[in-house]
Amino acid sequence: MTTTAGQTTPQSLPPIQLPQKPIPPARPGFPVIACAAPLLAAGLIWWLTGSALVLVFAVLSPVIAVAGLLDGRRSSSRQRRRDTAAYAAAMTEAAERVDHRLARLHRDAWSSAPTAHRILTVPDDPGRWADPTTVTVVLGSGPAPSGLRLDGGGDSAEHRAVHELAAVLPLAPIGVDPAGGIGIVGPGVIGRSLARSLVVQLVGQLSPRALRVRVPPGPAWAWAADLPHHKTRAARCLTVEDAGPAGPPAVRPIPSAAGEMRIILADSVTGLPPGCGTVIRAQGVTEADVVRLAGQPCELRFAPTLVAERQVSDLGEILTREAEAAGLGGGDALPEVVAFAPLCAARSGPTEDSAQGSTAAGSLACVLGLAEPGALHVDLVADGPHALVGGTTGSGKSELLVTWVAALATRYPPSQVTFLLVDFKGGAAFDAVRELPHCVGLITDLDEREAARALASLGAELRHRERVLRESGGRDITDPQSAGRLARLVIVVDEFATMLEALPALHALFVDIAARGRSLGVHLVLCTQRPAGVVRDSLLANCSLRISLRVNNRADSQAVIGSDAAALIPGDLPGRCLVRRGSAAAVASQVATTTAADIREILLIRPAPTPAPRRPWLDPLPPRVTAEMLTAVAGVDAVDPGDSEFLLGLLDQPDQQRYRVARYDPQSAGNLLVVGGARTGKSTLLAALAAQAPRRVRVVPADVEASWDALVQARAELDGMAAPPTGHARRHDAGQDRRLLLLDDIDAVLARWGDEHRAAAIDLLTGILRDNGAAGQKLVLTAQRLTGSLQALPALCQSRLVLGLPTVHEHQAAGEPAASYDSTLPPGGGRWRGGRIQLLHAEPTGAAPPPRPALSALADQAAPMLLVVAGSAARSAAAFRAAETNAYPQVLELGAHTGAGASGARVEASAVAAGTVLVADADTWQANWSLLTALRSVAPLVFDGATLADYRLITRRRDLPPPIAPGRSHGWLVTPDGVVRRTGVP
């Protein structure tokens, strides 16, 4: 039995403290000792002094004792009166607190109880028909346990009275569970009034979709036949059985199934069916008893809640009106499922030619489902120009959007209407319709960069439409002068509120589209779970077509259709909605369900047109760009850039709704610096440039020797000397063929050079970049990061290409703004002249890379002997002996035991035979300086594994020899005429 159902329960409140009854103070006794002690003292003093005056003070002792006794009793009486008054005040306060708690519980209990009078007096209750899982009906009011807790106190009469007061909640709602049947025994008028009250409560709690009502014939129950619950076929049924004075007794047993409830009226308990869970004996207007509760005997007296027949005379009309507003009216007029194919088959009508006139006249009419008057027709042009769709999860929002797109695609060709789909739930909502030829873009889960791209693309679409109308002389898309020039664009957005929360900047764009969309032929269909407080008035003002499926609260329903009706739609009716056009009343409807077979049928009647419809949304750049893509974007000339230009890739220009071929002209654009992390496409770019003009390009790998030689040769060509690289033959046409020098990973190469070579290479590089001018060959440099002395490169390179970098700080250091940083760039993606670029991918040619130029062999030297300065004399000597060259068959290691003499013996120049290789380390040669000096004029000097310090010690020169890569068996060769170059060593 339910007595209280408020949000505040007695258990959630702190207990009320009762005061303890005060204990009266004990009455003070006569102070015998205090009286006798002065007497004895006075007698002793008289005996000692003989003064009779002392005896006078002895007489005062009893007087003082009696006075003290009287004063103590007076104080005790005063304290007893104070304690009694404080106790009485505390008891009064506790009683008042009990009264306040009881009043609060009484108020909460009745405010949450499903009383018949509230249902009758509040006809537009927004919380009606929430279809609770547990149902309770209120029989009337009576005493019920309050559940209040009291602490403290005692067993006094006052405490017992307060406990008795707090234990009972008077006039509480007496509620019972109607399951198991409710039997009412008593006079017919009173019993029917009470049964009427119970029926009103049940139809007020359960919607027509959740409860069916069956009542007996006759005028007493004619009012219930007008209830919308009387016309439905809900699974749960309430049956009212009224035998009447002459009717047969109700003897049908109460079913155990939870789907049926019964209210039985009888003249006596014997007239009730077996198993009746609740039995009520109505004795009068103000008195009734519950004699059985939940199948158990019970004794509970209460005042029944009675409802007169005149109070419910118009209840059927009121609830029917509310059911219609909530999409529950009309009995079974609206089915729970509507198929798309038969609904649209007869209305798919216009061909491309006939649809031309329809759209030109300004129509996007289609059928979405069934409404109570018939088919549900909507027209974005006539009813819009924009639509707002609200609905909670599971209400059928995505199905509605798919059906709407499919219905438009069935009726109109892509030349008349196109769709841009935006889904912030990952894109799955539009999987069924994304293959339609009308679909010109699918946007899913934008980030900030893609949002900026969306702003640019859609803004460009509006400008394009304005330009077309201006050129045609038409005022808007319906003007005959502009007929056929533009297809209407429907932008369908699922989860609009989620998109705005993530990207607030898009709201201004949609407000602009909403304001200008009618004349430009751009329509919005905005779908959201939470329309209240998210979609602003500036946007709502242009959304004249409103569709609301089931929503969770009144505010969302009010925001969409201006009433609470959408909050009353049952949760088990996906696709049930209310459609409002402008200021007209909302119409209950059921949206059709579109299947994959329906989409296949549309694809059969609407094949992909040629040419494809214009795409207002430019897809992001592909992760791989081929020459065929460049040809498709720029025409057949894209892959033949001419004599001076090089193709870099595709440049994204969403503000112009296009891709553009990015080109690089070294003569006009100057030197190019490419900055990017590992595996971001730097080497691929160099390969693509080299593949386009192999005779005009020289690719230098990330190699210390090759890079040095390239820089030396570039400097020489720039100075007009045309000097060949060290170790290579002179080329007279080098300056003409190699107009573009490509140096890969220049920062990694610099890091592998020694300090002096690094400083010299930087001077060479910066000098070339600074001095090559308009006629000199240009450089393309790639680097992973710009640190140290390389920070000056951006100022010396007129063009800059920034690929993916690990951090935004490195991105900024490369000269790009932080806002353009993208950590998700694919290989080949980057920034070029303020825009996003995807580089051309060089297709493999299948040919092997060109071999490294071979260095001159020592055996080819036309010299009588070789002088070798070795890092390790023994290793070098052994290597030369193992080489077995015909030109130098004899190897002599200075300072070691040889056939020529003892260890440490000096060797004279005249004693060195032709074809001899003299090997020694730098210190040994220093000790044999006269020998070295004598032979230097005729014999080359070879440095094998020697250091730069060894080179300078022996040659006495300060210039830098070319760098040598470790592990390649290379050394320095100094000819007798002083030329220094690399050479191969054994």
From TrEMBL:
The lineage of its organism: Bacteria, Bacillati, Actinomycetota, Actinomycetes, Micrococcales. The keyword Membrane applies. Residues 1-21 are annotated as: Disordered. The keyword Transmembrane applies. It comes from the Bacteria. Residues 371-558 form the FtsK domain. This is FtsK domain-containing protein. Residues 12-21 have a biased composition (Pro residues). Gene3D superfamilies: P-loop containing nucleotide triphosphate hydrolases (3.40.50.300). CDD domains: TrwB_TraG_TraD_VirD4. The chain crosses the membrane at residues 54-72. ATP binds at G391, T392, T393, G394, S395, G396, K397, S398. One of its GO terms (molecular function) is ATP binding. Keywords: ATP-binding, Membrane, Nucleotide-binding, Transmembrane, Transmembrane helix.
